Amino acid sequence: MSQNLSDIEKMRLDKWLWAARFFKTRSLATDAIAKNQIKVGGQRVKPSRNIAIGDTVLVEKPPYSQELTIIGLSEQRRPAKEAQLLYEELQSSIERRETLANQLRVERQMNPRFISDGKPSKKQRRQIIRFQNVQDAPDSDTDQKVGPKS
């Protein structure tokens, strides 16, 4: 890295989240902080909050959440291998994420209706349109035309 991890003592939270590659842009990191998806030390924070080495950060990117300890700061966005050197995930957080990933995988396998073959064929599209038109058609008994009285 061009700047050593020890050169910087504090930096903005949104910039660190961007540099550590949790978000593609700083504005996305700022939006996540505004939505209370990021907490430092268990507290709600602002994007301009200064963080330091040793702080704990909770990053919630639904459906997953990660608890991290900051072990390095970098002013620049570096490759993923170097970005992973900026933080250490707690073991309990890793176990929760893996458990949730397994649960989601099992649920996907149990619900085959969500599995798709891609976009519908021309025949399937016509069937969908026909079905929608039948559902939208007014009943002759309940819906009566209301017009001007003569």
CATH topology of the domain at 10-112: Structural Genomics Hypothetical 15.5 Kd Protein In mrcA-pckA Intergenic Region, Chain A
Mean pLDDT comes to 87
Measured between the Cα atoms of the first and last residue, the distance is 85 Å
> Strand order, biggest sheet?
3-2-5-6-7
Write the layout of secondary structure elements.
Blueprint lengths: L9 E3 H7 L6 H9 L3 E3 L2 E2 L5 E3 L3 E6 L2 E7 L9 H4 L3 E3 L1 H20 L11 H15 L14
Antiparallel strand pairs: 1-4, 2-3, 2-5, 5-6, 6-7
What this model shows, in words?
Helices cover 37% and strands 18% of the residues. The chain is α+β, with helices and mostly antiparallel strands. The protein has a domain at 10-112: Structural Genomics Hypothetical 15.5 Kd Protein In mrcA-pckA Intergenic Region, Chain A (Roll), CATH 3.10.290.10. It has a five-stranded antiparallel beta sheet with strand order 3-2-5-6-7. A hairpin with a 2-residue loop joins strand 5 and strand 6 (64-70). The radius of gyration is 25 Å and the shape is elongated.
In short:
This protein has 150 residues and is an alpha+beta fold.
Main features:
150 residues, alpha+beta, Structural Genomics Hypothetical 15.5 Kd Protein In mrcA-pckA Intergenic Region, Chain A, 5-stranded antiparallel β-sheet, two-stranded antiparallel sheet
